[in-house]
Amino acid sequence: MAQYDHLPIFKAMLSLAVEVEKAVRYFPRYHKYTLGSELRGFCHEGLGLIAEESAGVAMRYSPAGVAMR
Of 20, 34, 36, 46, which sits most exposed with the smallest number of CB within 10 A? Predict the structure, then answer.
């Protein structure tokens, strides 16, 4: 079991991702591939960020926007 599966924020984000998938299914074709794709990407990115942070490998950014570890 991954370290982040039990976190309430991960469970909530996963539920949101599932609901977005269900909603996008009924979008008109144009929006399904533009807006739907963007919404899916945000959800997947959020899940990835939660997993990275729980593992302690998240990238930090300086005020200048430079990636740091």
Answer: 34
Of the pLDDT bands very low, low, confident and very high (cuts 50, 70, 90), residue 41 is very high
User: What pTM was estimated for this model as a whole?
Assistant: 0.72
Long-range (24+ apart) CB contacts under 8 A made by 55-64 are: 55/3, 55/4
What burial class does residue 27 get, using C-beta atoms within 10 Å of its C-beta: 0-12 exposed, 13-18 middle, 19+ buried?
A: middle
Nearest to 41 by CA among 57, 56, 21: 21
Amino acid identity of 10?
F
Please provide the DSSP assignment of the chain as one string.
--TTTT-HHHHHHHHHHHHHHHHHTTS-HHHHHTHHHHHHHHHHHHHHHHHHHHHT-PPEE-TT--EE-
